[in-house]
Every structure is written in structure tokens, then in C-alpha cells.
Amino acid sequence: MNFCSINDVDNPQGWVDEALALKKEIETYGPKVYTGKSICLLFFNPSLRTRLSMQKASFNLGIQSFIFNLNQEGWQLEFEDGTVMNGYTSEHIKEAAGVLSSYFDAIGVRSFASLSNKEEDYTEKVFNQFVKHCSIPVINMESATLHPLQSLADMITIKEFAQVKKPKVVLSWAPHPKALPQAVANSFLQWAGQMDYDFVVTHPEGYELAPEFMQGARLEYDQKKAFEGADFIYAKNWSSYEEYGQILSQDKKWMIDKVKMNLTNNAKFMHCLPVRRNVIVTDEVIDSENSIVMQQAAHRVTSANLVLRKLIG
Ligand SMILES: NCCC[C@H](NC(=O)CCC(=O)O)C(=O)O
Ligand SMILES: NC(=O)OP(=O)(O)O
Predict the structure, then answer these.
(1) Count of Cβ atoms closer than 10 Å to residue 163 Cβ
(2) Which residue segment(s) compose the domain that 46 sits in?
(3) Same-domain pairing of 101 and 192
């Protein structure tokens, strides 16, 4: 079994409940003694939450974790078959994946989108080579197009804070100075589409996400309209999917501020972090009582606990 996307999850709503139950179990009984199992956490990109929540969850379950910052510390990997490797790549994914599979019981991989090659990104060229060549479970720690560990944590957080059975959840684009991947937004769409939400997405024209992820969501181009009566505002920037990887707008009018939050049903504010203060969201909103970004980040451990237990627990 792998954890590449929601397609590896038989019952997403059930996983949310199981994750909350497992959290309680760990709080009651404490971490497990070492099980003899081990996991490699392999990063091509920076991380705070994913890296440390996966290490903490490993500790909780008695699994030893090993960090590998491949870009800085490993050999440059070759992903093409049949290449004459007389250039700058030193090791083929076939050998690397085979060796890692012989050392560990599972592997987590973080490899962000290039944002330059849409086809390679949307076929998950790098991540899928790990899936193909590893003989152990592979966990997505944010790939080119998806971030399921984040989305599961997001669903857990919404479950914990929802005051009504069918909350109105709004995914809002917000400006950012850098071109960012669509992974967090795509994955949120997949998971939120499986929950019992009134689910709305709002973004400027040109920021349409890939149609396959939009099933289950309503699109509203007017951000203020989208915010009306919302119970949760989930802010995120992404670069254009159509004009792939481009920044089409840096319009400050899309920043989440108090005036917009006042249109909502006293909504909770969410963001996956790291967040650019006073670009994505004002200090006033993220520092307010309605901000649940800390609880959301804490649930990254809740989510990682469950995924590790399902795969190698
Ligand atoms: N894993 C959480 C988000 C990671 C990444 N954000 C970033 O790269 C933000 C970096 C910055 O703000 O400089 C993204 O959007 O996919
Ligand atoms: N939200 C998230 O994945 O954070 P990191 O990039 O710090 O892991």
C-alpha cells in the first residue's frame, strides 16, 4: 500500500475519525516502544511541518525515522531510462530506490512541481518513479500536484472546529510574490469534495485549477460573495495552471483581511503554512481568535500518525 493521494484511501471520512481516535490513544497511553521498523524521509525541497510531524509521528508509533535531504546531501539522480550517464547525474533512480527499499520499511518523498514542465509535473514524473522502483510503501510528502498529508490534517481540523453538520468551506486564492505549486489547493479540492461541506472556491480569472480536481466544488469569482456566510476560510496562493507556473496577479485586494472576514459566519481562518503575513493575510486576522492555523499545523502529527500506522504500523 502507498499513500500517494486520496485514491489510496478507502473511506476518507472514516480516516478523519480514526485519526482523532488514534490521537487520543497516543495521548492516553504515550508513545509505543521501538518496533524495529524504520522510515526514510527524503526531501528535494525545504520543510518544517512535514519533516518534523513525520518524525514526531514515527516517535509516537515506535518507528525510527531517517532524514535524507537528497538535493543537498545525495547524488544527483537520473530519472530517464536508457540515458548515457556521462553528464551531471550520478545515480539512477532504479539503484537509489532499490537500495532505500532494502534499508527501510517505508519511504516519504517530497518533490515540488518544477512549474516549468506542466506535463512532467501533472504526470508526477519524479514521485511516480519512486513508486515504480521502490518495493516498500511510498508516502507523498508533497509531490508536484498533491499534498495529501496536509489535506487529511485540514479535514481533521475542520471536523474538530465545525459547529454545524454541513459547514460552508471556502478555499480562497490570495496573492504571493513567488510562483507556488497548485498541490495544496488540488489536494484540498480532492478531500473536501469527499466531505459533507458546502464547498466554494474563489480566485481571480486565470487561476482556474485543473478541471479533474474541481468536481464537488462551486466556483465563485467574486471573493466577497464567496465569503458570505462561510464557516471556514482556507487561504492559499497558487500559480496559474493554464498559463503554467505564471504569476498573473499580485492584487492586494485578494489579501484576507478583517473587512472580508466580517462577511463570514464568524469563520475560522486556515492556512497550511508557511504563510506570508500581510501579503496572504493581515496580522490582525492571523493573530485573531478565529485563526486556527496552529491547531491545523498540530494536526499534521494527527494525520501523519494515522498514515504511518496504516502503512507500517
Ligand atoms: N507545504 C506547504 C506549502 C509549500 C509551498 N509553499 C512555499 O513554497 C512557500 C514559500 C514562500 O513563501 O517563500 C507550496 O505552496 O506548495
Ligand atoms: N504545510 C507544510 O507542508 O509545511 P512544510 O512545507 O513546512 O512542511
Answers:
(1) 9
(2) 6-146+300-312
(3) no
Q: 273 a known binding residue?
A: yes
CB 245 within 8 A of CB 115: yes
Residue owning the nearest CA to atom 15 of ligand 1: 180
Express each pLDDT in 247-299 by its tens digit. Answer: 999 999 999 999 999 999 999 999 999 999 999 999 999 999 999 999 999 99
CA angle 252, 255, 256 (to 5 degrees): 160
pLDDT tens across 172-181, in order?
A: 999 999 999 9
CATH of the domain at 241: 3.40.50.1370
Whole-prediction pTM value? Answer: 0.98
31 CA from centroid of ligand 1 (Å): 30
**Does residue 272 have its Cβ closer than 6 Å to ligand 1?**
yes
185 touches ligand 1 (CB under 6 Å): no
For ligand 1, is residue 235 a contact (CB within 6 Å)?
no
Q: Are residues 131 and 157 in the same domain?
A: no
Same domain? For 243 and 280 the reply is yes
Q: Is 137 in the pocket of ligand 1 (CB under 6 A)?
A: no
